[in-house]
Specification:
Elements (H helix, E strand, L loop, with lengths): L3 H7 L1 E5 L1 H9 L5 E6 L9 H4 L2 E3 L2 H7 L8 E6 L9 H4 L7 E4 L5 H14 L3 E4 L9 H7 L8 E2 L4 H10 L4 E4 L5 E2 L9 E4 L8 H4 L4 E4 L11 H12 L2
Parallel strand pairs: 2-3, 5-6, 5-10, 6-7, 8-10, 8-11, 9-11
Antiparallel strand pairs: 1-4, 2-4
Helix pairs in contact: 6-7, 6-10
């Protein structure tokens, strides 16, 4: 389960650390299949959770852990059909909140932070294009700090399908790009589909052409650009204000 091939074959992934495991235990989205703790790790979880736990030595926990310093709490969780692109239409039926589309977002830390930010600031969900980072990789799961279980995340959603669904549900489509002719304060964007691009390349002209407007975050300093997860946070805060 440390590798993408193993996760796909087993349809399972690793959740490690107190925040992720508590979120997994409390949610039906990606249910816990197996729970492992050390004696010290058991102190981080409620007694009710420990009834189903398998106790491991520190040495064995370190061997299966995905991090250098294991916290002593690790769960194996099952994937479910919500990750399937066939469910893209359903996500637009959720509460009227901004929906994030990540176009070829490659950095696991960025993706995890985007999912966590979507949870904290309010989003109907996060859609991932083909070629984006795996939301079930250990680094992404850790970076979400449990938010993976709170926000719908759909993988392998092509841009055409996302745009078609947005149109059918009367949602505006905005492409976030520093070269946009419209600035963020000029629009609302609460129930819109927001498209964010690759960390290095941004969005292609073909993608921005699909949007109703290309929107830039105004900057007063001398920085050339914003970190992707930071741009998502600013956009969601504005859209939900």
């Amino acid at each position: 389960l440390h590798a993408s091939k193993g996760r796909k074959s087993a349809a399972e992934f690793i959740a490690e650390g107190r925040a992720a495991v508590l979120a997994a235990l409390a949610s039906k989205r990606y249910p816990v299949v197996s729970l492992y703790v050390t004696e010290s790790g058991a102190e981080l979880l409620p007694q009710s959770a420990l009834n189903r736990a398998t106790y491991l030595s520190e040495k064995i926990m370190a061997a299966i852990s995905t991090v250098e310093s294991a916290q002593g709490v690790l769960a194996i969780c099952a994937m479910n059909l919500e990750i399937d692109s066939n469910h893209v239409g359903e996500i637009f039926q959720r509460v009227q909140l901004p929906l994030i589309y990540c176009f070829e977002v490659n950095d696991p830390g960025n993706l995890g932070t985007i999912i966590r930010t979507a949870d904290a600031l309010g989003s109907a969900g996060v859609l991932l294009s083909p070629g984006s980072a795996d939301p079930f990789s250990p680094k992404v799961v850790r970076s979400t700090a449990g938010s993976l279980w709170h926000v719908p995340v759909l993988r392998e959603v092509d841009i055409q399908s996302a745009v078609k669904a947005a149109r059918s549900y009367k949602r505006k489509i905005y492409a976030a790009d520093g070269r946009g002719s419209t600035t963020l304060p000029q629009i609302n964007g609460k129930d819109a589909l927001w498209i964010f691009g690759n960390e290095a390349r941004g969005l292609t002209k073909d993608v921005t052409a699909l949007a109703d407007q290309v929107v830039a975050i105004p900057m007063k300093g001398r920085a050339e650009s914003l970190n992707l997860a930071t741009a998502v946070a600013i956009t969601l805060f504005h859209a939900n204000s």
